[in-house]
Target: 2-dehydro-3-deoxy-6-phosphogalactonate aldolase
Amino acid sequence: MTRKLIAILRGLPPGDAIAVGQALVDAGITTIEVPLNSPEPLVSIARLAQAFAGRGEVRIGAGTVLTAQEVAQVRAAGGRLIVSPNTDAQVIGAAVAQGLDCWPGVFTPTEAFAALRAGATGLKLFPGALAGPEGLRALRAVLPPATQVYAVGGAGPGNFAAWRAAGADGFGLGTALYAPGLTADAVAARARAVVVAYDAAGGPA
Model:
């Protein structure tokens, strides 16, 4: 089962990448992003991509991707997922041209439609805490029905059901899963709790 959850490993040191990644995958979270403002993020991405090579259900990539040059660097490291906090047509275009999944950050209908027009795989509603489920519900009313929208920042095990009812397809989770200094065992425990809550809220759309 591939759950519509993205683990955001901000601050992950390369030495912990494989153990933390394995803990997440074992718990059932198979999409992992390492934000580019983490320590040596491309090293972590390369190690994760190599560790899970051949596992088609596992997607490794980068977050906080802001330029087309960074897209190329992520791809060279083995990443296949590009996540951004903003909508930048050049970043989206670079990702699409290189065959990568691309999830730009959006907050308004203008940003959402610009991202879709540029070829985004799906939309990252960010910061979710400001929009809230009601903000997503309003956005959903005008988006093409097939648009995938993940809530990021403000979505977690305690409110998955409310977000799902508002039209969220999935979620990006940071500190609910990982913070620098956490052991792989601690990440595993958090990941299992997240998966239980996600499944209880209805699982994939």
About this structure: Helices lie at 17-27, 41-51, 68-76, 89-97, 109-118, 128-140, 160-166, 184-200.
